[in-house]
Amino acid sequence: MTIEIKADFPSGKSRFTALAPLAVLVLPLGFVACGSSSDAFDASSGGGSSANAGSSVGGSLANAGGSFGGSSASGGSSFGGTSSVSSGGSAAVLGAANNGGGSSVGGGVAVAGQGSAVGGASAQAGAPAASGEPPSCAPGGPGMNTCGPAGTESCCTSLPVAAGTFSRTYSNNGSGATGKADPATISAFRLDKYEATVGRLRQFVNYLAAGGALPAAGSGKHSHLNGGKGLADGSKAGSFEPGWSSSWNSNLPAGTSAVATWTKNLACSTGTYGTWSAKAGSNETLPITCLDWYEALGFCIWDGGFLPSEAEWEYAAAGGDEQRMYPWGSTAPGTDSKYAMYDCYYPTGKAGNCTSLANVAKVGTTTLGAGRFGQLDLSGSVWEWDLDVYSAKYDNPCTDCANLSGGTDRVLPGGGFHTGLMPYMLSSNRTSLNYATTYRGDYGVGVRCARVP
Predict the structure, then answer these.
(1) Higher-confidence residue: 398 or 49?
(2) Which of 78, 201, 314, 372 lies at 20 to 30 Å from 265 by C-alpha?
(3) Residue 287 and residue 308: Cα distance in Å, rounded?
């Protein structure tokens, strides 16, 4: 049988026709524990907050009189050797700091004396240590703890992805993988179950608007790998993940005008499909759209995580060595939006041009589309930024590698709610994945954070 499929790029402008045959650590006041992630923030800002220091825990360094940035929080050791803690089943927590009764979770910076942020939301350096939630979900509310079929799951749930080896290049038409090449070995990590929501990003924007610190230089590495040096640069022997660069700071609007600037930036080029709003409203459970690469990386660092490498993202989408056709297997996704959000089928079940935000569904709506490791919406919904610089050819060999030099465009896989089926929804797809770091698209460009195992 021959099926006519429409496909389009993240911009939505190029269309063509294709044929397809816990443990929770409770720290007393006066202690600061830095997680094993290097997700620290610059001590030069943060409203002059200071964490109450007193001791180090499990080898991580306590940081007196300032926020985490500029200290040895980057690459610091974790609580007794691990920095993950179960929350709502699996969310990772990379650090906590008591600060006048508040705390910083995920390596964020507690802002002293700020009980509320812009718009009335709680200040998002963190949450009570007992909550065990990353700062983007700590306050609770729509898009923060309202995910899952019952609307009661943490939207920061982060699921373990087991270590393994797979082929980055392969084909699968439903009868098994063929043409396997470009093997990559991946260490265990965690990958968020859900794409970042509007409600979660709002906490980051509020944090910056309230004087929160920008990411520290070098933060955002896979600090659990290679003795804290992070991923190996597959294109440059002997080099490793550099982390955040202070030269990127201007890409994260902060201060009193931050909300207005973010609102302008996140409107999308058409002004139609931006899910962000200046004030919290009915879109908080939708995936954030029109996010550029710097914003995606900065958000994940603040939230205690990092961007997944291309190999890590592909590994999760392929189901590791199962080399799946789609993240959920080989079942055709159909038109009822149970497996994937694509080609504007949601909510009517009829393909066609998207017309409004009515075509964008709450994260995790596609309950039958879970990948091998439990993540939802790996195909469809929004395209998801990866860490890597795009290269037409994979770097070989690859053990916990990423392509981190030799170009400017970054990798943007996954397909969106507007995207045609072939080839963009396939787990093995590498067509039209390279986009400038400032690219936002006309439709769905978002992010899903990864975390230490």
Answers:
(1) 398
(2) 314
(3) 18
